[in-house]
Design goal:
Helix content: 40-55%
Number of helices: 14
Strand order of the largest sheet: 1-2-3-4-5-6-7-9
Shape: globular
Order of helices and strands: HEHEHEHEHHHEHEHEHHHEHEH
Radius of gyration: 20 Å
């Protein structure tokens, strides 16, 4: 299973490059158009040698159309052949473990050998929406039970509940009960030390959300590496970080594009979620001093600018964190800007066009 986790750096990239897709929806656009863009990004990623394409679970956010990662991944699987596809992540406390085991068993049957199951313990939304998803207002209980939910999910994926267990006669289908079958490798996702320590204890790969928790990145990665215990899955730590990155032909245009995502995040954090604003709307917005401080701070964590500047920023970030893989998320109003950014970054690193024969094991 190690081969299903570790990627190969191509061109002059210091580590493998991957995609984190939020399926953002801009003002004047639709979810349908954003999902079409996701297909185009996945196809470009496959052609240019990006290692994997992950989709994140979010709910009740008008500017994000990724509420159903398994459905989107099935669609992407139908339009690609080699690139790894996965969840970045499924928020496990929102779901029964059996449901996730069956969804990702189905995905593995559709795209054998190239599916990742990334799991998080946050709700991926606000408290009221989480309560509606889980049909309970005891939200902390779900997060506290995450290790137990993870263990149950693993049992369902492996079909190995012990005799006498209440679920011993229950089988996730598609799955091993039908005969020898591979299963997606598990990843733990996080933005603090909890999942870092758990991933290390279990010997699992770890993905850290640097794109919205940059101050915690190095402490969490240090904790993961120091606490890591070799397992049948991994003999050494493997850490991915999610990075907000956007390249454009010139610095001014890159700044215009990332400002749209910053304003969208400001509105979300202040209880006013909506579609991602246009560059013109973002430029014309009257920021208060407090809002300007938030936006300026947010933008410092986005690697943006010309392709060469983005390459230099990513190289520096990889050196500072020691990340084994960089997973890039391009947040902007329009699909064309996101698609163009992934292409420009691939060019900056000299990634080959029309990659052939890259293993997706």
């Amino acid at each position: 299973m190690v081969d299903a986790i570790r990627g190969t750096a191509l061109g002059s990239a210091p580590v493998p490059l991957s995609v984190l897709d939020l399926v953002t929806v801009g003002s004047g656009s639709t979810a349908r158009q954003s999902l079409r863009t996701s297909v185009e990004i996945a196809k470009l990623g496959e052609r240019r040698g990006y290692h994997r394409h992950w989709v994140a679970e979010h709910h009740s956010m008008p500017g994000v159309a990724s509420s159903s990662p398994a459905v989107i991944l099935a669609h992407l699987a139908a339009h690609t052949e080699r690139i790894r596809l996965g969840s970045g992540g499924v928020m496990l406390p929102n779901h029964a473990p059996l449901v996730i085991a069956e969804q990702f068993g189905t995905l593995e049957a559709l795209a054998p050998g190239r599916v990742d199951l990334g799991l998080g313990r946050a709700p991926g939304t606000d408290g009221a929406t989480a309560a509606a998803l889980r049909r309970t207002d005891r939200l902390n209980e779900g997060a506290d039970d995450f290790p137990q939910q993870l263990a149950e999910l693993t049992r369902f994926l492996d079909d190995d509940f012990p005799d006498g267990h209440p679920y011993a006669r229950i089988h996730a289908v598609p799955g091993p009960v039908q005969g020898p079958a591979a299963r997606p490798p598990l990843w733990l996702l996080g933005s603090s030390g909890f999942s870092a320590r758990l991933a290390a204890t279990l010997g699992l790969p770890f993905a850290f959300a640097h794109h919205f928790s940059a101050q915690n990145t190095i402490p969490a990665l240090d904790l993961y590496r120091e606490s890591f215990r070799p397992s049948a899955v991994l003999d050494a730590p493997y850490a991915v970080i999610g990075v907000a990155a956007l390249a454009a032909e010139d610095e001014k245009e890159a700044r215009r594009q990332v400002l749209t995502g910053a304003l969208s995040m400001l509105r979300l954090r202040t209880g006013r979620p909506g579609l991602v604003p246009t560059p013109e709307e973002a430029e014309a917005y009257g920021f208060s001093p407090q809002e300007r401080d938030f936006v300026d701070g947010w933008l410092t964590n986005i690697v943006h600018g010309t392709p060469d500047a983005v390459r230099a920023g990513l190289d520096d970030l990889q050196k500072r964190t020691g990340a084994d893989e960089l997973m890039l998320t391009a947040n902007a109003h329009g699909g064309d800007a996101r698609l163009r950014s992934y292409g420009l970054i691939a060019d900056a690193y000299g990634l080959p066009d029309a990659v052939q024969g890259i293993s997706s094991k």
